[in-house]
Write a structure and sequence with these properties.
- It is a single chain.
- The chain is mainly α.
- The protein has one domain: EF-hand (Recoverin, domain 1, Orthogonal Bundle).
- It has a two-stranded antiparallel ribbon with strand order 1-2.
- Helix 1 runs antiparallel to helix 2 and helix 3 crosses helix 7.
C-alpha cells in the first residue's frame, strides 16, 4: 500500500512543498496540509504502518530522517533538529521512538 492510495497526491505535494527549506518542517501543519489530520484513527494507523519501514511497531530516529521521502520520493531528509522536535512531540513514553498510539495522538490532536 502506498500513501497516495490513502491521501491525494496533490495534497501530499503541497504539504512537502511547504517544508522544502531545512528546519521548516512543522508536523501539525504537514499533517493538516496532506489531509492526514482529517482521517479516521484507522486510516492514521495504516499510514503509521507504511512509515514504520522495519515493522518494529514504532518509528525510530533513522526512519524519521526519511519521513518526507515516504510521502514523496524526491523530498528532502529531515534535519537533526527536525527529527529531535518530532521525537519530542510524539514520544510520550520517552523510549526514543514513536509508537502507533503516540503517532495517532500527534496526527489527530
Amino acid at each position: 500500500m502506498s500513501l497516495t492510495s490513502i491521501l491525494s497526491a496533490e495534497a501530499i505535494e503541497n504539504a512537502v512543498k511547504e517544508c522544502q527549506a531545512p528546519d521548516s518542517f512543522c508536523f501539525k501543519k504537514f499533517f493538516k496540509l496532506c489531509g492526514l489530520s482529517q482521517k479516521s484513527p484507522e486510516v492514521v494507523k495504516q499510514v503509521f504502518s507504511i512509515l514504520d519501514e522495519d515493522n518494529s511497531g514504532s518509528i525510530e530516529e533513522a526512519e524519521l530522517k526519511f519521513f518526507l521521502q515516504r510521502f514523496s520520493p524526491g523530498a528532502r531528509t529531515l534535519t537533526d533538529n527536525e527529527i529531535k522536535s518530532l521525537l519530542a512531540a510524539g514520544d510520550k513514553d520517552a523510549d526514543g521512538t514513536i509508537g502507533v498510539d503516540e503517532f495517532q495522538s500527534m496526527v489527530l490532536s
